[in-house]
């Protein structure tokens, strides 16, 4: 995979309470990814960037919320996230990426 595409596919880790629970129970990590990213691209990007073996990838689109402000209603942008399950014994350290 093209090194530039790796950083276009993976936008960053998604940190939430649910992501922490999933990471502890299922050895999964949650990433914000590009809307046009496929499961195979996400798998290759994580393997190349973090030097780990990926077992499975699940993706979903999060629809943007409709918010009200003084000008009326506006919509936050939709985004995509990916649940990446690593093989047994693999681990991602977000502090050091080589």
Question: What this model shows, in words?
Answer:
With 98 residues, the chain is an alpha+beta fold. The chain has one domain (3-86): 2-Layer Sandwich (Alpha-Beta Plaits). The chain is 30% helix and 36% strand. It has helices spanning 3-9, 17-26, 39-50, and strands at 10-13, 28-33, 54-62, 66-69, 72-75, 79-86. The strands form 2 sheets. Strands 1-2-6-3 form a 4-stranded antiparallel beta sheet. It has a two-stranded antiparallel sheet with strand order 4-5. Helix 1 crosses helix 3 (39-50). The radius of gyration is 15 Å and the shape is globular. The mean pLDDT is 93.
Give the SSE layout:
Elements: H1 3-9, E1 10-13, H2 17-26, E2 28-33, H3 39-50, E3 54-62, E4 66-69, E5 72-75, E6 79-86
Antiparallel strand pairs: 1-2, 2-6, 3-6, 4-5
Helix pairs in contact: 1-3
Key descriptive features of the protein:
3 helices; alpha+beta; 98 residues; Alpha-Beta Plaits; two-stranded antiparallel ribbon; four-stranded antiparallel beta sheet; single chain; globular
Report the total helices: 3
CATH class: Alpha Beta
Percentage of residues in DSSP E strands: 35-45%
CATH topology: Alpha-Beta Plaits
- Name the shape in a single word: globular
Roughly how many Å is the radius of gyration? 15 Å
How are strands sequenced across the largest beta sheet? Answer: 1-2-6-3
What is the CA–CA distance across the termini? Answer: 16 Å
Could you list the spans in which at least 5 consecutive residues all have pLDDT below 50? none
Secondary structural class? alpha+beta
Report the CATH superfamily. RRM (RNA recognition motif) domain
Query: Tally of extended strands?
Result: 6
How much helical structure, as a percent, in the residues? 25-40%
Largest sheet: 4 strands, antiparallel
User: Mean pLDDT across all residues, rounded?
Assistant: 93
């Amino acid at each position: 995979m093209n090194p530039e595409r790796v950083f276009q596919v993976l936008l960053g880790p998604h940190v939430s309470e649910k992501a922490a629970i999933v990471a502890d129970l299922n050895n999964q990590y949650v990433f914000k990814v590009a809307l046009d990213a496929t499961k195979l691209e996400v798998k290759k990007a994580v393997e190349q960037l973090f030097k780990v073996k990926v077992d499975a990838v699940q993706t979903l689109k999060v629809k943007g919320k409709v918010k009200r402000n003084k000008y009326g209603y506006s919509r936050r942008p939709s985004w995509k996230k990916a649940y990446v399950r690593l093989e047994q014994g693999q681990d991602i350290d977000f502090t050091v990426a080589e």
